[in-house]
């Protein structure tokens, strides 16, 4: 038994009793903790030993937690929600526009005053039509009532005639707009080279530019000139026969331009519908793929805004199409000289066209005011 040597025990027998169960901390610090391999219950491993055997060190775990914290702090959903709240507060839906402000801006333009006078004129025409229809069935009794009725009808007819003349005067010189566009196109044609030198090809004459202009612009130009000739005739500057011919020619141009506008409207509406279906298909595919407003917020919101814009454009194209149909029915009675139901159809289609055109112009001026106020924030 004396030959057994314990760790840290001195070879001297005189110090055997003192160092029998004493551990040498110097050797433990040098060789590490020594565990009895025959023990059935090994001691618990301290946390430091787990760190040394773990594939992820403790410092890396702290970095992961820090990255998670930074990821939550810079979450794109949170940023979008914050930005959207600010944008929602400044969005056009939150800006209050008074109707009188819109009407004030609308009546500053000649087109707005024309629409307002048209509403008044055809409202009176509709009233006159129904008044005459009711008077035929239920004649007014009494001499005083008949005199009052006759005076009222005479004043309303005079007012509608005056409003028609005022509207003709408001839209005078509208031929300047198509003429300016044609002249701008003519000036853009290559006629001279660089530094004022003549180009190889001669400059085309102005008549060539007029003949090769787009049909809607030419129709607008010719119709505006014919309308002005008819207006000058109504004012007494030109003869009555010349004015009547110019009026019939202007009606024919109006009929043709309305057909052209209907074709353009149908083409544009079909393009808008195709774009709308493409956006709806993309949104449906994203929803079926599991994309939500949180997983792909920017793409979803962009598609939603685009879809709302396309739906709005499609709505106003339908309004414009209805107005063009009303105008086509109205002018057809003038071009083809139809007499059956002339007064009723002209009054109702004129009022419907005035309402639709005024609503579109009102919405345009309202959007202009909203944009102006949004930019002032």
From TrEMBL:
Keywords: Membrane, Peroxisome, Peroxisome biogenesis
Endpoints of the signal sequence: none
Region (Disordered): 32-95
InterPro entries: PEX11 (IPR008733)
Pfam families: PEX11
Basic and acidic residues bias spans: 63-75
GO biological process, one term: peroxisome fission
GO cellular component: peroxisomal membrane
Skewed-composition ranges (Polar residues): 46-55
Transmembrane residue ranges: none
Protein name: Peroxisomal biogenesis factor 11
Organism: Lactarius akahatsu
Lineage: Eukaryota, Fungi, Dikarya, Basidiomycota, Agaricomycotina
């Amino acid at each position: 038994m004396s030959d057994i040597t314990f760790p840290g025990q001195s070879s001297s027998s005189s110090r055997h009793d003192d160092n029998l169960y004493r551990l040498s901390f110097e050797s433990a610090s040098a060789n590490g903790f020594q565990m009895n391999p025959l023990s059935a219950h090994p001691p618990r491993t301290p946390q430091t030993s787990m760190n040394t055997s773990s594939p992820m060190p403790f410092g890396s775990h702290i970095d992961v937690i820090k990255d998670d914290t930074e990821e939550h702090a810079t979450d794109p959903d949170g940023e979008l929600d914050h930005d959207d709240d600010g944008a929602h507060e400044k969005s056009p839906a939150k800006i209050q526009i008074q109707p009188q402000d819109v009407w004030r801006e609308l009546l500053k333009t000649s087109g707005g005053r024309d629409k307002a006078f048209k509403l008044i004129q055809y409202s009176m025409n509709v009233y006159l039509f129904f008044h005459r229809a009711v008077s035929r069935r239920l004649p007014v009794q009494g001499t005083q009532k008949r005199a009052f009725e006759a005076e009222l009808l005479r004043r309303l007819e005079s007012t509608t005639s005056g409003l028609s003349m005022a509207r003709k005067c408001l839209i005078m010189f509208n031929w300047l707009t198509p003429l300016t566009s044609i002249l701008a196109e003519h000036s853009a044609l290559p006629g001279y080279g660089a530094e004022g030198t003549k180009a190889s090809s001669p400059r085309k004459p102005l008549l060539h530019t007029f003949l090769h202009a787009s049909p809607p612009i030419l129709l607008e130009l010719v119709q505006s000139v014919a309308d002005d000739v008819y207006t000058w005739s109504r004012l007494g500057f030109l003869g009555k026969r010349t004015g009547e011919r110019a009026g019939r020619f202007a009606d024919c141009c109006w009929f043709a331009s309305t057909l052209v506008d209907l074709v353009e409207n149908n083409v544009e509406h079909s393009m808008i519908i195709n774009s709308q279906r493409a956006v709806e298909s993309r949104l449906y595919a994203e929803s079926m793929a599991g994309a939500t407003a949180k997983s792909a917020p920017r793409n979803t919101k962009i598609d939603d805004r685009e879809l709302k814009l396309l739906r709005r454009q499609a709505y106003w194209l339908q309004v414009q199409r209805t107005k063009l149909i009303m105008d086509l029915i109205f002018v057809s009675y003038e071009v083809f000289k139809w007499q059956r139901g002339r007064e009723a159809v002209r009054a109702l289609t004129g009022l419907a066209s005035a309402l639709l055109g005024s609503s579109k112009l009102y919405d345009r001026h309202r959007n202009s005011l909203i944009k102006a106020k949004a930019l002032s924030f």
